Amino acid sequence: MASQYFVVSGEGEKSGPFTVEALASKLQAGEVQAGTILTESETGAQTTVGAVAGPYAFAPNQAAPDRGRATVWIVIGAVGIVLMGCVGILAAILFPIFAQARLAGQQTTTTANLRSFGIAVLMYASDFDDVLPPTTESAEAMEPYVAGYYKDGPLVSNNPQGERIDGNAALGGKKLPQVTHPDRRALLFDSAAWPNGRRLVLFVTGRVERRPEEQFAAAKAAGFLFPAPEPAAD
């Protein structure tokens, strides 16, 4: 027969007897504590609830750490979700800004290269009685003539819409004094507009400007003669 135990209260009163299983249930429910005194019904030997029923039950204060760990993981998960959302929002805000900054840097680099190429063309003309290179339909066509003055390699645009630099073919072999409105007459220009709707234009004087795409068709019809100059590109 399984052992049974009386529960001894703090005042010495006994209740029971209870089986080990019953004591385990009481311990789990918090009705008795692990240190509560027990008396074996047959021998009268004293022991405690924890010694007898502890292995069969978990007291409420013993289960609390598990609940605490679960709460910590829930909080960590919630914080992680919030952080991921913040990162997504920041990315959506910053990526276009970074893209614009990158594009501005590419345009600035192309502007500087185009200006250097224009100086090389003027140096060539200075050495050849103010005559422009025989072919001016593109930067690529002019490179063999100005190679000794321009050391940066083939001139290409960083424009994502088109890398080619086109030219004003009508100026090939012309003397500079014969070019009318040289400050408004394009010598070289982007083959396509940049994403910001402008083309880089190198004028005969060596000036580089960013001109709106809407001016280009009319200027081309007039021999690539653009309206009055705008402020120089940076």
Report on the structure:
By secondary structure, this protein is of the alpha+beta class. It folds into two domains: 4-61, Dna Ligase, domain 1, CATH 3.30.1490.40; 107-221, no CATH class. Helices cover 41% and strands 16% of the residues. The chain contains five helices and eight strands; from the N terminus they run ββαββαααββββα. The chain has a four-stranded antiparallel β-sheet with strand order 2-1-3-4. Strands 5-6-7-8 form a four-stranded antiparallel β-sheet, covered by helices on one side. β7 (198-203) and β8 form a beta hairpin. The longest helix is centred in the middle third of the chain and has 68 residues, at 60-127. The radius of gyration is 45 Å and the shape is rod-shaped. It starts with a strand and ends in a 13-residue tail after the last helix. 25% of the residues are buried. Residues 57-65 have low confidence and may be disordered.
* N-to-C span: 100 Å
Overall number of strands: 8
Q: What is the strand content?
A: 15-25%
Largest sheet: 4 strands, antiparallel
- Indicate the structural class: alpha+beta
Task: Indicate the radius of gyration in whole angstroms.
Answer: 45 Å
Number of DSSP helical runs? 5
Instruction: State the order of secondary-structure elements, H for helix, E for strand.
Output: EEHEEHHHEEEEH
Layout of helices and strands, plus pairs?
Layout: E1 4-8, E2 14-19, H1 20-29, E3 37-40, E4 46-48, H2 49-53, H3 60-127, H4 139-146, E5 165-167, E6 186-190, E7 198-203, E8 208-212, H5 216-221
Antiparallel strand pairs: 1-2, 1-3, 3-4, 5-6, 6-7, 7-8
